[in-house]
Amino acid sequence: MSGAKPLHPGLFTWPDQNPSLMGSLCLDCGEHAFPSQRSCRACSGQNTQDAELGNTGTLWTWTIQSFMPKTPYLTDETPETFRPYGVGYVELPCGLKVESRLRENTPDQLRIGMPMQLEIISVREDEKGDALMTFQFCAAKETH
Amino acid sequence: MDVAIVGLGLHPFGRTATMSGLEQGAAAVRTALADAGTDFKTMQFAFGGSQDGGNADSLVNLLGLTGLQFTNVANGCATGGSSLNAAYSAIKSGQYDVGLVVGFDKHARGAFNPKPAEWGLDDWYGETGLMLTTQYFGMKIQRYMHDYGISRDTLIRVAEKAFRNGALTPTAWRQTALSWEEIENAPMVSEPLNKYMFCSPAEGGCALVVCRADMAQQFHSNPIYLKTAVVRSRNYGSFEVFSPSQPPEVAASPTVTASQTAFELASVGPEDIDVAQLQDTEVGAEIMHMAENGFCAHGEQEQWLAEGATEITGRLPVNTDGGCLANGEPVGASGLRQVHEICVQLRGEGGARQVAGQPKVGYTHVYGAPGISGVNILTR
């Protein structure tokens, strides 16, 4: 592997010691959006700016993707190497709920309201061997 | 001018290997025309739609090039509801006297294959495995169960009812009742929903002949009146499929706004409805839609299902033909199947699944991606 880069620009700050999700804030009505939006879904205005959305939150709902999806899913996995993954909405400190892959992938590991932490993971390699990175959330480590 | 439904046509749902989607649509139209005692030349207009079965207006190649106004409708799972809504307006406005609504489809096996760009999303969303409708349905009912105390038993009861009713419906795809154990132990698809709790893409066709109410007796001795047809899209904050983020406040779904408007326009309330069709893409949808359409409070579904209130013999029979769960979902035809079944029930032609007591007022509700709902209220 020669290097690594985001699968899509503008979703999160990276490389970064402490990566954060990136979205937008409407300066007219104060609503946040993810991904960043040039026009506001709430008030129809166009006075938005990019905003860091942070890297922690609580789990609002969840499910588990138990089989390998068809296209447009695109990873290096095969049906043999596929591992189920969690999918959930994580409620961020600003109140916005962001849909995300979850590292946890069994029902006993997932609970509505549990604290979550952002992490950056590799999706697949591009033709040059660079790792393409995306975000997911995982259970926050207990720090105190 | 009021609007009447005077012809019903359904090509059986499921799989018909020998027929294209278009041919299944044409078969449904012929049945509907025969039911109304009329012919295609008499039709002044048509609204129709299909997601994967071809352009609906190509039906004229099979039915006759009569020069009628034929409009293709494409509104996802609400295509049928939107077609009927358009036909309702065409007659209500006085523009036309009689016409046709038709929907058909023929989907490949397995889950749908959406393209991110068609939904205004970038490729990363699909490539990283977030673009599956099954995930959304699992996550919506998961949160709902948490908020309103709905148990897994209630999910199983809805599936049980669907296949039991499907077994009484000759045109249904799934005509075998399933035991509690079979449903409970089915392979998990998307927590908490398993294989028998989801409907599947399918094939089929459905058509309705609609006309001015004052002409109805010319076509059928037992016309059904379409009191209102309402379609609504989502408001900011409604929790919908294919949403990379959701605003802090959860807003009422388009089902709530469509339902409230329909009841208001028809001057009836939920307590007046004798038989209903509620979109059951999966069992959680039927449960949530009972409350979103105003039939019970959030959380009361637990008791309703335990008491059998939505069985054919219950106080509000829901999805008497087995709904999407037993019929599958040919997207273009599915919303019209709901209307077809309510018309059958109001005519008293339901056979083994007929609701007793001569139901007088019926209700249909279709819901689809990316957050669109259609509600119809019908009377005899």
Defining traits:
heterodimer; A: 144 residues; mainly beta; 2 domains; 6-stranded mixed β-sheet; 42% strand; globular; B: 380 residues; alpha/beta; Peroxisomal Thiolase, Chain A, domain 1; two-stranded antiparallel sheet
Can you give a write-up of this model?
The complex is a heterodimer of chains A (144) and B (380). With 144 residues, chain A is an all-beta fold. Chain A folds into 2 domains: 4-14 and 55-139, no CATH class; 21-53. Helix content of chain A is 0%, strand content 42%. Chain A has no helices and 9 strands. A 6-stranded mixed β-sheet of chain A has the order 1-9-8-5-6-7, with no helix packed on it. In chain A, strand 8 and strand 9 form a beta hairpin. Chain A is globular. The N and C termini of chain A lie far apart (37 Å). The relative contact order of chain A is 0.23. The mean pLDDT of chain A is 95. Helix content of chain B is 34%, strand content 20%. In chain B, helix 6 crosses helix 10 (283-292). The mean pLDDT of chain B is 96. The two termini of chain B are 16 Å apart. Chain B is built from 13 helices and 12 strands. Chain B is of the alpha/beta class and 380 residues long. Chain B has helices at residues 21-35, 60-63, 79-92, 123-127, 133-148, 152-166, 180-184, 216-219, 254-266, 283-292, 301-307, 323-327, 331-347, and strands spanning 3-14, 45-49, 69-72, 98-106, 188-190, 193-194, 203-212, 224-233, 245-246, 275-278, 361-368, 372-379. Chain B has one domain: Thiolase/Chalcone synthase (Peroxisomal Thiolase, Chain A, domain 1, 3-Layer(aba) Sandwich). In chain B, the strands form 2 sheets. In chain B, strands 3-2-4-7-1-8-12-11-10 form a 9-stranded mixed β-sheet. Chain B has a two-stranded antiparallel ribbon with strand order 5-6. The interface between A and B is large, with 43 and 35 residues. Strand 7 of chain A pairs antiparallel with strand 9 of chain B.
